[in-house]
Amino acid sequence: MGGRARRSTLAGRLRAAIHGEGAEEVERFHIKGIDPIRDLRQCLPGFAPTVVVDVGANVGQSAAVFAAAFPHAEILCFEPVSSVFEELQQRFAVSRRVHCVRCALGAESGSGSIVLSGSTLHSLAASPTAESAGGTEPVEVRTLDEVCRERGIEHVDLLKIDTEGFDLEVLRGAEELLAQQRVDVVEVEAGMNPENSTHVPFETLKRHLERHDYRLFGIYEQKEEWPTLQPHLRRTNPVYISQRTIDRHRGHSPGTPP
């Protein structure tokens, strides 16, 4: 009975912490899965990115968070849709650290078409004739390996990918970077059930990244099947870290100096 009471008390304290009634409890019990930046800082002492790549930057929601969290980071944003890119570029017009590039990233360089929709969420078309209520728009496609070579980027501290189903293609275009462990942290968007035909399955992304010696760090933004109003998971944002990064922090518990 005493054990049950202790567990109930702990559960209550954790719930209170999550709901803002005691933020210090979050730190004490190190609850992972809420804020990836906080978790990375806790588990990787000294985590202070100087190069962040945001693929599928949209209007800069994530880039703004990165810019605030990492004041010394150069942030490279990729957004292919012209109308969305204009908003992105305007948002960071006075920033010297956020650099916006209008193109899509994929497995190989070339050209493609982007499927437009009524929202700001878009995806590359599987073929130039892909149908959409909003039509399509031609886009330039580059590989991340190629862009980094051109810009002299040797190392990426944080790579965030959100391309509405083309995350695996982006990773395939970063083969050199991943194979050489020149990316420390990778965040992708993954489908979590077989009915989700929009996002790349979690298992597929996991296999690809594990082949390059990346390991799952945490799972964030767990979203239920909102289109069908069902309670099971539709998508998540898994975060992976390189084996080199793991080795560099081996033996250090969260919050302790390296």
From TrEMBL:
InterPro entries: FkbM_Methyltransferase, FkbM_mtfrase, SAM-dependent_MTases_sf. Keywords: Methyltransferase, Transferase. One of its GO terms (biological process) is methylation. It comes from the Bacteria. Residues 54-216 form the Methyltransferase FkbM domain. GO terms for molecular function: O-methyltransferase activity. The keyword Transferase applies. This is Methyltransferase FkbM family. The lineage of its organism: Bacteria, Bacillati, Actinomycetota, Thermoleophilia, Solirubrobacterales.
